[in-house]
Amino acid sequence: MSIEEQYRTRAKELLAGGAVKMVIGYGKGTTGERRRPIFITSPDEVERLVLDEACITNLSGYLVSEGLLSDEKRVAVFLRPEGVRAVNILAAESQLDSDQLVIFGFDVVGNEIKALKGIHVEEFADVIESLKESAPGVAKELLLEKIESMSPQERFSYWQGEFAKCIKCYACRQACPMCYCRRCIVDSNQPQWVNTSSHSLGNFEWNIVRAFHLSGRCVECGNCDRACPVNIPLRLINHRMAEEVLGTFDHFAGTSKTQEPVLASFKKDDSETFIL
Amino acid sequence: MKIVARHDEAPGVRTLRLEFQNPADHDSFMETYRTGMFGLYGVYGEGESTFCVASPETRKEYIECTFRQSGRVTSALANADIGDLITFRGPYGNRFPIEEFHGKNLLFISGGIALPPTRSVIWSCLDQREKFGKVTIVYGARTVADLVYKHELEEWLERSDVELVLTVDPGGESPDWKHRIGFVPTVLEEAAPSPDNCIAVICGPPIMIKFTLISLKKLGFDEANVYTTLENRMKCGVGKCGRCNVGSVYVCKEGPVFTAAEVSRMPASDL
Amino acid sequence: MTKILFSDKLDNCVERWKKAGFSVIGPVQRNNISTYAAVERAAELDLGLILTERSIKELFFPQSEPMLQYTIKKDSIETKDFLPPSGQRIIFGARPCDASGMAIDDPLFGWDYKDEYWFQRRNESVIVTIACTQSDDFCMCTSLKLAPDSTKGSDILLRPLENKRGWLVEEITDRGRDAFKAIADIVQESADTAAPLAVVEKKFDLDRSVAWLQNPENFESRFWKEISMRCIGCASCTFLCPTCHCFDIQDEGDTYSGMRRKNWDSCSFALFTMHTSGHNPRSTQSARWRQRIMHKFNYFPGKFSVNSCSGCGRCSRQCPVDMGITETLQEISKLSQ
């Protein structure tokens, strides 16, 4: 039985038995290679679930999206390892109760789909740990190397060119499981911290503020990068920040649901090199 | 426009009296302005905010606006001092057709901070009192302190040609409160004004309007004789920015004044 | 014999137009995105794209537009109105859906207050459209009763030649005719024939979908919740849409000086309709998606007798969760069968 079929069967059982009220997974999209998030509430619909290498979107954001789950939090959700990391962070930040979740874990290795063993977040600890070892090296893309080899002026003008494209549609924010704030800082206007206009200053403010807010929290699922309609390589910024956090605080975001938020907690032996 | 006077009506609620800087602007405003229309009031650096013109069409020396200090712009307006300049665009929107009210009894129903638009109609009618029949005003607020235009309420209480029914929500009364206690729809039903030859004008928060409309129906009012004003969020005021519509109706262009019959044709969940 | 513009002469045209005082704008690839931008040479143009990722709207209705500048002095306030910098321009190589989109928005910017920002740019622009000979799965002009060679909103329509050496020239408006006077001697008579147009499959029955939308009962249909469950509430569909025109007005600056600007805004955002009191008429994402569809296919045509959609398909093409107008109207078509 393929992994897709195994998970369909499990989804059917869970829904029929009432263990979960909804399965958040992937279904066919508009075109052959597209996949889209779907929400299954009846055991008769599980055939709509699809699982293949095109299932990339991190679905964990739906677990905290306003109005979707209302009072019913018992859901099953298809997650790749980054998705599990996101759930850990959301649980650590008191945004959800991970005990209510059934996880259909999977990963794509090469072109092959691999099932990840486990139901609850705790059971994926080893998988996440192995990511920690490989992530910084593997994800270091050529473009990032190129950018890092630039002079500060070149680098600034590179990002200036990229941010100039930003139209402030906030697709990056909306697609991000970590951006769950009911009122984002850009929507707060007393005071108006961030200019709402998408001119040069406003775009810099937005993208840099977002990078800061995701430092130590980003799981590098790539949702923002794929959602950006103007192709800004947002992932590079977040990856750079993740590297920095790993190097400075030995913190890899989302290893467990009890992990302390690195930039929101204080330790006596924290390095204080930034205090002049 | 220049702020020539300001007055605190209730905690957080302030009235500004405004004069145009340019006589030509004054004249063109007064020529167009009719009760019910709205304007966009603003402070440079903070933005613009939409609310009604609270002064009546019958008084042409100045305009007044009354607002609750809650957002960025209203806070800036509240902090503006006498002599300060603020921006104004308007008048926009439609009006209460008060000539059509001639010879009829008038019932005004209002809640809390929604008295300002009602007050504009009330004075526009009281300034030509002889043209109308009986005038009844039902006004309520959460607490005694929250009643706005307290001086004018006193004046209306004293007038023999106006019947004013005042109420506050249960628990909002002060020890010396001599008027009603209860929610506006309930008090309205107790006062039981006759629907015969009567026009009702209601303004209030969405929830009050909803229940007051039910009460008016019980009392026998025809939806076509009930007027209200909708105040949706607006930015342009001229039918372009795309946010104030309720169903297909653009509040800034086709409103803000509607009959209850018109409102009942709008999709309720879009209100 | 018909009028032909050969592509190897395009550089001469650009030069000629620039000499005649036009700036020349067209589809280009810049910073890893396809968009419309000013060019110096014809070689910069990318005329092989099915459609630019960013729409033509930005040339008429930029994402952030300064409207006025204020300076506050001790006893007075000085203000300075901003209008777009004036200048004639030729937009070469627009697609018919983009050009149509601009014509669709004309009545909106023209009713009541005439938006001078929009109309100054409209009046100073010549849109030279190239009919489509290729399309993708998301193109849907034919579903909107438009076509790969619609002339709506265009001043000139060019039809690609079968032999790929240039375009057959159709002059649509006087403005187009005038602009082509500058290159009259470059345009030649020839018997070359036009290449077949792109075949754009009709994806839904517009009339049937619109009739369903117009039925007040369907406003409360469960359909809205179901179709929009995966909507994440970003504004990429509205911002890339050539006809979406909603905007915000924002002041930026300090107590002494600053700027009032008109910025794109979107019905997808929760704060778009939020009252100061906290009451929000469109408090759920399904209500907001319903508003977008209703606005385009019910309210807007009710006022201006034209649907606010030209079928470019950008909404569906780039949606992070694979939603869009096509799917929604397809499903509605099915519901009303």
Question: Can you characterise this structure?
Answer:
The complex is a heterotrimer of chains A (276), B (271) and C (337). Chain A has helices spanning 3-17, 81-92, 125-139, 142-148, 152-164, 171-175, 200-214, 223-227, 234-249; strands at 22-28, 35-40, 75-79, 101-109, 112-115. Chain A is α/β, with parallel strands linked by helices and 276 residues long. Chain A folds into two domains: 3-132, no CATH class; 138-264, no CATH class. Chain A has a five-stranded mixed β-sheet with strand order 2-1-3-4-5. Chain B has two domains: 2-92, Beta Barrel (Elongation Factor Tu (Ef-tu), domain 3), CATH 2.40.30.10; 98-229, Rossmann fold. Chain B has helices spanning 23-32, 72-79, 115-126, 150-158, 184-191, 206-219, 251-254, 260-265, and strands at residues 2-10, 13-19, 38-43, 47-52, 63-68, 87-92, 105-111, 135-141, 163-168, 180-181, 198-203, 226-229, 245-246, 249-250, 257-259. The longest helix of chain B is centred in the last third of the chain and has 14 residues, at 206-219. Chain B is globular, with a radius of gyration of 18 Å. The two termini of chain B are 32 Å apart. Chain C is built from ten helices and twelve strands. Chain C is of the alpha+beta class and 337 residues long. The longest helix of chain C has 20 residues, at 285-304. Chain C has two domains: 2-190, no CATH class; 206-335, no CATH class. In chain C, helix 5 packs across helix 10 (325-335). Chain C is globular. An eight-stranded mixed β-sheet of chain C has the order 3-2-6-7-8-9-1-10. In chain C, strands 5-4-12-11 form a four-stranded antiparallel β-sheet, with no helix packed on it. Chain C starts with a strand and ends with a helix. The chains are: A alpha/beta (276), B alpha/beta (271), C alpha+beta (337). Chain A binds chain C through residues 29-31, 34-39, 57, 61-62, 65-68, 161-162, 164-165, 167-171, 173-175, 187, 192, 195-199, 202, 223, 226-227, 229-231, and chain C through 31-33, 53-54, 63-64, 137-138, 229-230, 232-236, 238-240, 248, 250, 252, 261, 263-264, 266, 269, 271, 284-285, 316, 318, 320-324, 326-327.
